[in-house]
Structures are given as structure tokens and as C-alpha cells.
Write a structure and sequence with these properties.
The chain is α/β, with parallel strands linked by helices. The chain has four domains: 97 residues, 2-Layer Sandwich (Gyrase A, domain 2); 177 residues, HUPs (Rossmann fold), CATH 3.40.50.620; 96 residues, no CATH class; 115 residues, Orthogonal Bundle (Isoleucyl-tRNA Synthetase, Domain 1). The chain has 20 helices and 15 strands. Strands 7-6-5-11-12 form a five-stranded parallel β-sheet, with helices on both faces. A four-stranded antiparallel β-sheet has the order 1-2-4-3, with helices on one face.
RNA sequence: GCGCCUGUAGCUCAGCUGGAUAGAGCAACGGACUUCUAAUCCGUAGGCCAGGGGUUCGAAUCCCUUCAGGCGCGCCA
């Protein structure tokens, strides 16, 4: 694909600086250009410092044994005239600031107008096959707010990676095997019998939530008293299988309503039934990774960077959850993914080294498995900590939250912070802030522009020749410069796995737009002026729409 | 005790590979609707970047250390 104009300009500018450096070195003024020193171009925080700035003079100060400002002056002096740079100046302690001719902005606009939905796309991840596994909540109860955060993060990253050229698969691992679902079965069984009038002692470790009663009632409606005929074991299994499938279905619905569509739902049980779990233990044994101690079987994970060895088979002969997880991840690699990303909750971060150790032990580069931690959410209610407990059945579910604040606001709220931040979420505040949430500010910019287009006489036909001829005023240049940098924001957000770079960017862009909107009119008496301003609005609208799209947030035509 | 995350304005948080005078939203205060959507705009005020050392031309950013908060360290999942 074609490089974004921004990158092309950046590369050409680097080339021009390199030429100046080479020229200066030929004249003995500076040391020869080497591969060790890379020319870095940054976007200055202040617009008065130009479109780009380089710190090359500082880097060369030591080898050249000259003062940075002196070097910067030499470099500027050797720069040849180009159709790119309007002016280069030495500034501060030795920066070189570049002010570009506005033609580059018009080239950005031409590219944008040619393929508006594509604008912002980069090819950083072209050819890569990436799998994202996230949420993967146990099918034993409603999902919580951390699941909602992980969902927003995983889904947005998937969209970002695709926009960067990768082939992406979103996957959900269903923990439909083992103790947790069994406990669910026992819990439902107890409520089932209780509702049918039996004297029951609710299991000590059972799930206390009201939703278990709901499930039991639904079970009675569906199957009547028939389960009472079964043996206890059969009945619990029946409750388990019926129950987790019901819960799974509601999780699938919740996620779909949230806008998250998975490519695959992967069952843990299927691994057990296919014998893959026992097979993994056998393979580990063959590879000499295991030893026996105190009747248990251990994996020498410490040889692969873990801080202690891990049990794979307990003294009573059961394989641990860890083994199923290894089997699962080996399966992922077998499916041909180049890179695996898992998003886990903060309580699982201690699990990362052993998982990577297992992959390394099977000959995979552990760097191909990346685990992101969706950090905790401190739920508050009126400023006071609100402790959630599945056991006591007191929690705010993901669905509660989404119904309360809406998908767009919830996603924005989760994504506007770095994934590492432990965010405070005040339930009362979230309700109050609904109307003040910054997401509406950004969406409003989009809606305002849509409104302008609805009132436009005639059609907006972007014409490259016209675009190339427009002369922009300074406040317009500022907006277009922001538009121009969008592909880099996309690239950075994907590379660092930080969608909040996008929310910040969109907020900035919307601010510039709203300010301009209050200052200037789009629909004027002058045809050329109107055309130019409409073009500007069109560019902003598409960037906002694409940006919100990458966050999984809607871009409304009106509000 | 060990490991991971966090500590920046009254509150919630940004600050990209180290760069120029540390930013935004909310809250507070003062202004702007005869005009394409006031869910908007303009302005004022607000800081010892938790503390202390170090690295260098330059540190909120990197290293060491102390303190504070959260989480994790089972033959659990």
C-alpha cells in the first residue's frame, strides 16, 4: 500500500537532513554520517517550534566536539532548497525546527478524499497473523466490570491491528471443565431441590447469587421435577451442563450487545475430550521436562524463567488447569498464528512466567506469547469502596453497567485510560457524567459536520485540482496538521497496545474543530471559501469517524 | 519476604522512542447565542511531577533507593 503522506514527508525530510550532514562532513565541518546515529524527527509540542524538529545537533555534539547550536547552524546552512521545507531554523539550545510548505497538507487531503474510509491505515502489521484472546470469563455467573474493560480493550486492539494490516482473530476460551463449573452444578442443584420443596443444605462453597435461583426456576420450567429421578451425581452433572450453557449463552448475548463479535469460542472441555491434555503431559515427559516428587508430577518451569516449578499432575492423579492451558496455547500456535495476545485480569499476572516457560519448553519463542493485564477497577459508590463478591452475590455486572451508561460511553471510559491504570469507577458519578462524558464531545463534532453537509446546496465533490489550489489560514493549518498525523497515532496505539492514545487524539481534534466552528462559518456567500471549509470539515469528519470506529464507538449523524 | 501495577492541579487522568515554558476533562470563578446544533466557545485560577540519590547537553520519562496504595505469590481455577 501507499505510505501515508505524513510518513513519506518525514522520510524525505530525514533524507534532506542526511544530505546536509554528508555535505558538512565532506567539508570537514562534521564527522561522517554513520549508521549508529539515527536522525530523529519529533513533532514539537508547541506549534511555534515548527512541524518537525530534530535533536541531531545534540547527538553530534560529543563526536564533533562542538556546541549543539554551532552544529545546528552548520546543518541548516547546508540544507538545500526543497519543495518541502519552507524554513528551517536553529532554536533553543540546539534544535532544528522545520516549517513545511502547506502543499503537504493538500497532499494529505487528496489522499483522504480518494479513500476516506482508508485514511489512517498503515502497513505496520502487514502479513502478520495475530490472535487476541480476551474476556474468557468462567461460565459460572454474570460478567463483571473488569470483563467489560478487557472486552473494550481487546476489541479495540483487534480493530487497530486490522487497520495496520494484520489478519486478526478474536477468541474466547470457555472454561467449561473442572471444579468451577462443577460448583455451579451443585449450586443450581441445591436451589432446584429447594424450590421443589426439599430440605437442602446449600454447599459451603456454592455460588450465592440470586441468579442461581433464576437458573433453577428456568430449569424447573424446562424440565419439571424430572431431575429428581436421577442419582445425585447425574443430577449435578445435568445441572452443570445445562447451567453453564445457559450462562454462556447470556455471556455471548451480552458481548454481542456490547459490539464484540468473536471469531471463535474455544471449549476447554473439547481439549480434555480429545485427549489433548493427557497427551501434553506425555509429551512433556518425553521431552524430559517433568519429575516426580511427593507423589505429584512437576514441570521444571524454573529452567525456562519461572520462579518455581509447577505441578502438572496432582498426587490424586488429576491434571491441573495449567496443563489444559498449555494444550490450548499449543493449539493456538498449531493454527498458524504468528503472535498470540491474551488479556488477563490483574489477579493472573503471576501466571505469565509459567505460561511463557511452557511455550519455551515446547520450542516456541516465548515472545510470541504476549499477555496484557487489564488492570483492576475500583468500584466506588458515592466515593466509598464498593467490594464485589461473587460468593455473596453482590456485584455490578457488565450488563448493569452497560445499561446504565451505554456502550459508547462505557467503551470510551475504559479506553480513555492506559490499560495499566487502576481506574476508579464511581457508580453514581458514572451516571451523572453521562451527559458530560467526553465521548459526546467528540461525537458532537461529527454530528455537527453531518448537519452542515445536510444543509449544503448541491453535492460535495472533492476535486484534487481544487484541493491543490487551496490556501489555508493558520487556524486551518493547525487542524489539518492534526489530521495529517492521524496515521501515526493509529500506528502508535497499535504498537504500544494503547487505544487511549486515540481517545486523547480525538479529544484534541474535536477541540480544535469546535473552536474553529465558533469562529468561522462553513456555509458562506463565497463559493470558493465555502468549498475549502467544507473540505476541511469533511477531513475532520472522516478522521473522527475512523477513529471512533477503531474504538468500537458509533459516529452519529445527529445528536 | 519476593514479584507485578500505580503515585503528576481540589478530583479523574494524559504526557509517544529522554527534549524547549508539564497538559486535558471535571469541579471553581468571569464572559459569549439575531449566525451552519450552546452536548459549543473565550478567559481566569490552580503544580516541590510521592521523597532522596545517580546517569547527561537535557529527566515526569532511564537506573538505584525509601515511602504509600492495589494485586499476585497453593498438589486452586
Amino acid at each position: 500500500m501507499k505510505q501515508p503522506v505524513f510518513r513519506e514527508v518525514q522520510n524525505r525530510l530525514k533524507e534532506e537532513i542526511w544530505q546536509a550532514w554528508a555535505k558538512a562532513s565532506q567539508e570537514g565541518l562534521l564527522p561522517e554520517p554513520t549508521g549508529d546515529i539515527e536522525i530523529l524527527l519529533e513533532i514539537p509540542k508547541e506549534r511555534v517550534h515548527g512541524n518537525f524538529a530534530t535533536n541531531l545537533a545534540f547527538v553530534l555534539a560529543k563526536p564533533a566536539r562542538r556546541a549543539p547550536r554551532e552544529i545546528a547552524t552548520i546543518l541548516v546552512d547546508k540544507l538545500v532548497d526543497s519543495d518541502l521545507v519552507n524554513q528551517a531554523e536553529v532554536a533553543g539550545p540546539g534544535f532544528i525546527n522545520f516549517f513545511l510548505k502547506q502543499s503537504w497538507l493538500n497532499r494529505v487531503l487528496v489522499a483522504l478524499v480518494e479513500a476516506p474510509e482508508e485514511y489512517g491505515r498503515v502497513d505496520d502489521l502487514a502479513g502478520k497473523k495475530i490472535q487476541l484472546e480476551f474476556v474468557s470469563a468462567n461460565p459460572v455467573g454474570p460478567m463483571n466490570v473488569v470483563n467489560a474493560r478487557a472486552g473494550a480493550l481487546g476489541d479495540s486492539l483487534a480493530r487497530l491491528f486490522k487497520f495496520c494490516g494484520a489478519e486478526v482473530a478474536k477468541e474466547y476460551y470457555i472454561n467449561d471443565y473442572g471444579i468451577q463449573v462443577y460448583t455451579l452444578g451443585r449450586s443450581i442443584d441445591a436451589r432446584y431441590r429447594e424450590l421443589l420443596g426439599q430440605e437442602v443444605v446449600f454447599p459451603e462453597d456454592g455460588y450465592q447469587g440470586e441468579y442461581i435461583y433464576d437458573l433453577a426456576r428456568a430449569l424447573i420450567e424446562e424440565k419439571g421435577r424430572s431431575l429428581l429421578e436421577m442419582s445425585e451425581e447425574k443430577r449435578i452433572e445435568a445441572c452443570r451442563d445445562w447451567g453453564y450453557k445457559k450462562i454462556l449463552a447470556s455471556q455471548q448475548k451480552d458481548l454481542a450487545d456490547y459490539g464484540i463479535i468473536y471469531d471463535q469460542w474455544f471449549s476447554e472441555r473439547s481439549l480434555h475430550e480429545a485427549g489433548r491434555v493427557d497427551q501434553v503431559v506425555a509429551e512433556m515427559k518425553e521431552r524430559g521436562l517433568l519429575y516426580e516428587e511427593e507423589e505429584a508430577v512437576w514441570f521444571r518451569s524454573t529452567e525456562f524463567g519461572d520462579d518455581k516449578d509447577r505441578v502438572v499432575r496432582t498426587a490424586d492423579g488429576r491434571t491441573t488447569y495449567f496443563v489444559a492451558d498449555i494444550a490450548y496455547h499449543l493449539n493456538k500456535f498449531a493454527r498458524g498464528f504468528d503472535h498470540l495476545i491474551n488479556i488477563w485480569g490483574p489477579d493472573h499476572h503471576g501466571y505469565i512466567p509459567r505460561m511463557k516457560a511452557a511455550m519455551a519448553a515446547f520450542g516456541f519463542d516465548p515472545n510470541r506469547l504476549e499477555v496484557l493485564i487489564a488492570q483492576q477497577i475500583n468500584l466506588l459508590k458515592e466515593g466509598k469502596p464498593f467490594k464485589m463478591s461473587k460468593r455473596r452475590g453482590e456485584f455490578i455486572t457488565m450488563r448493569d453497567l452497560l445499561e446504565e451508561v451505554g456502550n459508547d460511553a462505557a467503551r470510551w471510559y475504559f479506553l480513555m485510560r492506559s490499560p495499566d491504570s487502576h481506574l476508579d469507577f464511581d457508580l453514581e458519578l458514572a451516571k451523572k457524567e453521562t451527559a458530560e462524558n467526553p465521548v459526546f464531545y467528540v461525537q458532537y463534532a461529527h454530528a455537527r459536520i453531518s448537519s452542515i453537509f445536510r444543509q449544503l446546496d448541491g453535492e460535495f465533490i472533492p476535486d484534487p485540482e481544487f484541493i491543490a489550489s487551496v490556501v489555508w489560514e493558520d487556524d486551518e493549518k493547525e487542524i489539518l496538521e492534526k489530521v495529517a498525523v492521524f496515521p501515526e497515532v493509529v500506528s502508535g496505539a497499535a504498537r504500544e497496545r494503547e487505544p487511549h492514545r486515540l481517545t486523547n487524539y480525538l479529544l484534541d481534534l474535536a477541540t480544535l474543530f469546535h473552536s474553529y466552528y465558533n469562529r468561522k462559518r462553513f456555509l458562506t456567500e463565497e463559493e470558493q471559501l465555502t468549498k475549502a471549509r467544507i473540505l476541511l470539515a469533511y477531513a475532520v469528519q472522516n478522521v473522527v469517524r475512523n477513529g471512533l470506529g477503531l474504538l468500537g464507538i458509533s459516529a452519529p449523524e445527529q445528536m
